[in-house]
Amino acid sequence: LGVNESISVWVRSEKDLNYTVHSQSGFSCALIATKMAISTALSTTSVVSTSGWSEINGWDESADVGGFVLGPVQFDSITGRFSYQPLLPGKSALFFTSAQLTLGSLLGSSFAAGVMLNGDCDFETGLKVRSARASSQASGSSVSGLLYLTDGDFISVWVYSNRVANFTIMPGARFFVVHVADSDWSVPSFAA
């Protein structure tokens, strides 16, 4: 952010003018010293032709990149995979990642979105957000968090539908990856 710039949260509803923002809602913002960052988007509609888990590919090749790209970090826009390949074997690093998606044509289907580690779609791995049955044609989903990557690991964005095939991912979907720390970092201890 620049001088006199701010961040805020907005809600948009085209049909329902009587809604409630629940007290469990939250917003947080932090300034993080980063080693590198990648931001990419989908510029066209992407069609998912199967139910179950599907990896999102075809991200814009013109990803915004800060810091280094060559070396331990690689992003393949065709597969949508962000991989970590350190110069020294056995190294690991902490990454903050986020994906924001608008999914269309999901009426009556339950769906989920996730940033998965090494393509493992088990609900016990990676970062996931699950939705109840979609009550409209388009539903938004956002998932963010920290993932620890070791030599050769990759992360990518996945979507899930329990019944509907041929749903869409709308243009403007975003995928961010920020390299926060290397394996020589320490995590502060917390007490409950």
Based on CA atoms alone, the radius of gyration comes out at 18 Å
Provide the residue-averaged pLDDT.
77
Helix and strand composition category: mainly beta
The proportion of residues in beta strands is 35-45%
**What is the first-to-last residue Cα distance?**
33 Å
- What spatial form do the alpha-carbon principal axes imply? globular
Give the biggest beta sheet: 7 strands, antiparallel
Topology order in helix (H) and strand (E) letters = EEEEEEEEEEEEE
How many helices? The count is: 0
Q: Which stretches are low in confidence, meaning pLDDT under 50 for 5 or more residues running?
A: 66-71, 187-192
Q: What percent of the residues sit in helical stretches (DSSP H or I)?
A: under 10%
Number of strands: 13
Overview of the molecule:
- A hairpin with a 4-residue loop joins strand 5 (73-76) and strand 6.
- The chain is mainly β and 192 residues long.
- Strands 1, 2, 4, 7, 10, 12 and 13 form a seven-stranded antiparallel β-sheet that branches. Strands 3, 5, 6, 8, 9 and 11 form a six-stranded antiparallel β-sheet that branches.
- The protein is built from no helices and 13 strands.
- The protein has strands at 36-41, 46-48, 52-55, 64-67, 73-76, 81-84, 92-104, 111-117, 127-130, 138-150, 154-161, 167-169, 174-182.
